[in-house]
Amino acid sequence: MKATQTVLGLLLLVAGTSTVAMAAAVAPEIAVGTAGSGVALVSGIVLLFRARRSQK
Amino acid sequence: MSIGSAQLPLRDRLQPQLARLRSFGLLPRLLALILLFAVEVLLLSLWLDNASLVAQGGVFAIVGQWGAWGVRGIVGFAALFTTFAYLSRRRALTSLSAQVEQTPVRRGLLAAHLAAISAFAVLSWAMYGGHLMALPPALVLALWLAAGIAAIACAALAISPLLIWSQLIRHTGSLWLLTLALVIAACLAGNYLRALWGPTTSLTFALARTFLAPFVSSIVADPHTRILGTAKFNVEIAPECSGFEGVGLILAFSVCWLWLFRRDCRFPRAFLLVPVGVVTIFLLNSVRIAALILIGNAGAPQLALGGFHSQAGWIAFNAVALGFCLAATHVPWLRRRDAATPTPILGQQNPAAPYLLPFLAILATGMLASAASSGFEWLYPLRFVAAAAVLFALRKRYAAFDWRFSWLGSAIGVAVFALWIAVDHLAHASATNAIPAALAAASAPARIGWIVFRTLAAVLTVPVAEELAFRGFLLRRLIASDFETLPATSFTWPALTASSLAFGLLHGHLWFAGTLAGLLYAWALLRRGRIGEAVAAHATSNALLAAYVLAFHQWHLW
Fold first, then answer.
1. Is the pTM of this model over 0.90?
2. Residues B391 and B539 in one domain
3. What pLDDT was estimated at residue B210?
4. Which of A19, B337, B459, B498 has its CA 20 to 30 A from that of B411?
């Protein structure tokens, strides 16, 4: 079960990253110029949730 | 603990770190190798155009068509392999690193690398420029490939002997094959998934039309040309607008989240969040198109095609990502019973909140303000207000921080300002900017008010928010997850480099100056372990920059 989930996760990750890479290279609907803020914001959100988790 | 007192002088704390750096373990050498290749590829790509190669036909056309994929594959392989190796083979890598430290870097092979890369550059010039056509194309191509492979091999063997490389391959086992398979799969998937863009555009077109219908009585909609809108304002929904990029982002984000929080998630139920996220972002893309048409139809086409068009996608992605995080942590059905009880991310117990929230507030309001702007960000004061409000709300937690500073902080700020101006001159940044024209057209109170808020933000809220986030938090968070238990003077070279690089990347074309500034601000903090020193340095450079912008009308620096 765990192996299946890992493979499924990797496949989804591959599909996701390759789609973004292809779309960004061709004509981004999500502007590359504003990617810094967008990625920083979502990273900050994840770090906030992770920080809470480390308080266990 | 919070940012507080220093222990040993910075010089004493730096000694072991510098000694380690001088001995060049595996990681610094690999990073140096990656940096060397990145610079060389960047320099070559500045004057090599794949289109010219494709136009020549024959074997060169094949290289032109697949060259970009090759570079993408190599970059993807390096990134994935380094990540997997770091996560799963850390102990073996540490042991190898100790062996590498005993081996000097071989300068002769570095010289051979330079010779090979020079030959590669000359042959590239011949191939891409259509020169040396008296020679058989196959021979030129073979020589070109040989020079490229020789350049890579010489550089790799210069930093580490063949024996270490073979041990690295043995210790990392099947990771090479797994990474290679994933990279090939990613390249193929990217190519084949593109075939879905066309059919999906029809669905996006229909959805956007449905969302538009309640607000517009006479819709202009041509399914053949995929023109949608009104008689006053309409757009063509191209295959690239079909929402696939957002779907890809959410797929990558959700898989990373589920892996990071795998101990808290209840599987396989938590996997349901992936299709929910994908469907939500896909629907929001159609909402984005409908909203864009409504804005254009309302008499603001520049706003629709400007700020809104560039920001709405990121706003939607961040909104879905936040919803994903909240659902994964707060819906009991998706969480394991023995998972830690969630505490509010804004609560007193969250150690990262005082460090990150002011910066995140600036980013979020900046995104919204930019979406409501066309060229000139009239709502910039919102960034100042949002950051100030967060800083005020968390003021009790900041009371424990060491805000003291000395003349050195300000001196570092002056140095960063000088560096910034110098790099800007060297970069030949474009002087075209929407600010002067917009301010000239505004009323005097609006103009003065905007400049006052912009300056206040640059000198007060931005330095505090960015120093808390990058030097106060990220620098220690990259060393340990329980970063607050580390002294404020803690650092490692990878953490220092990565946090400064992340800071630099947020500064667009001035990323290099931003990275150097990040290193200098970190030095200000690490010297005595005072966040106040870094804030003073940052505020000084921003104040000088604001004065420079206003005095010499260098608006592009804002």
1. no
2. yes
3. 93
4. B498
